[in-house]
Design a protein that fits this description.
17 strands; six-stranded parallel beta sheet; alpha/beta; elongated
């Protein structure tokens, strides 16, 4: 699979699939430009190599061509980040678009309208992909966030190009996942949180023989505790996954993988930041109370293990971190990863909630890499080959 370093962009037009699916406020201003910043190195590389860029992306999940989902809304932010003029084309296909793109000059950047204004994009339509492919000499996929989607602009379009490659961002994402699952320095520790075992089971099964330690926190921990005979009160639990939890523990034992569960929790009688709280043993949570964060003993136990690790993967919070009362466990994990990274460990953070946590608590620049793709990262950790990546290998 080729990278942008192996391509000659002089007097060529690069058609780049970027992920500009950024959040907007009620005034349609970009509130987080991380994804635009992440695409910048690839775009500037093409321009500095004497080429031009046609950028294509989706924004949100439009049902029709709603104005709030138009990529016109982000043009000024893209210009600010890139430091160059960006010409917006209010269509993806059509005669006018073709004429404009045909006349693009080296150094220019065009941005097409939201791909998802066309049902053909999501349906993986070949005709739509072929039309898009006419806008460039070289195809670059730099949109990790959509690499798991078999859409026209990610998986289908590559077949129409002889010259195709991954951008710097996609390369970083692939290298970071490989740094954990394929060539990580030991001890390797995976920290998995979130509400449900069912959403993480495939990941656990895929990494159980690739890592030394798995820390299980968040809501899913209570399913494991109940499976072992613990009293978990009103805590979240998947009762149909109790047998599965025991099988995972057994499998970990056979693989000599150390699974750590919380030993204590911060419990409350209601799901509220203002609720009364108590610290208690995770195996003995009173009736009508629910665990909403890991307790101080668990924080110390997990932090020690993380700080002694050489490779760290974090996917999922330890509690209801959006509420300050129940954010201490997730913060403690962040501090421990920061400390380990400072000592030379490689740390990868991915998944919506974990990324939100490192941003909210100020750890974003203290870890080795923060993934830009939630679903794509999860599927990679599950061991799946992503359609957008396999298309570039063919």
């Amino acid at each position: 699979m080729q990278t942008v370093r192996q391509q000659d962009f002089f007097n060529k037009t690069a058609l780049i699939r970027v992920d500009f699916n950024v959040p907007l406020d009620s005034q349609l201003n970009v509130t987080d430009n991380t994804r635009i910043i992440s695409a910048k190195p690839t775009i500037l590389h093409v321009l500095e190599s004497g080429g031009s860029c046609v950028l294509m992306s989706h924004l949100g999940r439009p049902e029709s061509n709603e104005n709030k989902f138009s990529l016109f809304n982000i043009v000024s932010e893209v210009e600010k980040v890139l430091g160059t003029k960006v010409e917006f084309i209010s269509d993806c296909i059509g005669e006018e678009t073709s004429i404009k793109v045909k006349n693009i000059k080296p150094g220019e950047v065009f941005l097409l309208e939201n791909l998802r204004f066309y049902k053909q994009e999501v349906n993986g339509d070949k005709g739509f992909a072929k039309k898009l492919s006419s806008y460039g000499n070289i195809y670059i996929n730099d949109a990790f966030g959509t690499a798991h989607r078999p859409h026209s602009s990610t998986a289908v379009i590559a077949s129409f190009f002889d010259k195709k490659c991954i951008g710097f961002l996609l390369e970083k994402e692939i290298d970071s996942i490989n740094a954990v699952l394929k060539n990580g320095k030991t001890p390797i520790t995976a920290i998995l949180g979130g509400a449900k075992v069912s959403s993480k089971i495939t990941i656990i099964n895929n990494i159980i023989n690739k890592v030394d330690n798995i820390i299980l926190g968040g809501g899913m921990a209570y399913t494991f505790i109940k499976a072992q005979g613990g009293s978990i009160g009103n805590s979240i639990c998947e009762n149909d996954k109790l047998d599965l939890a025991l099988k995972i523990l057994e499998k970990a034992k056979k693989n000599n993988t150390n699974i750590l569960l919380p030993v204590d929790v911060i419990a409350a009688p209601e799901f509220s930041n203002e609720a009364e709280t108590v610290e208690c043993d995770i195996f003995h949570i009173s009736k009508q109370w629910e665990g909403l964060d890991i307790g101080p003993k668990s924080r110390a136990l997990f932090s020690k293990l993380i700080e002694d690790s050489k490779t760290i993967l974090w996917n999922g919070p330890m509690g209801v971190f959006e509420m300050p009362t129940f954010s201490q466990g997730t913060k403690a994990i962040g501090y421990a990863i920061k400390a380990a990274t400072k000592k030379g460990a490689f740390s990868l953070v991915g998944g919506g909630d974990s990324v939100a946590a490192v941003k909210d608590f100020g750890f974003y620049n203290d870890v080795s890499y923060v993934s830009t793709g939630g679903g794509a990262m999860l599927e990679s950790l599950e061991g799946k080959i992503l359609p957008g990546i396999s298309a570039l290998q063919q």
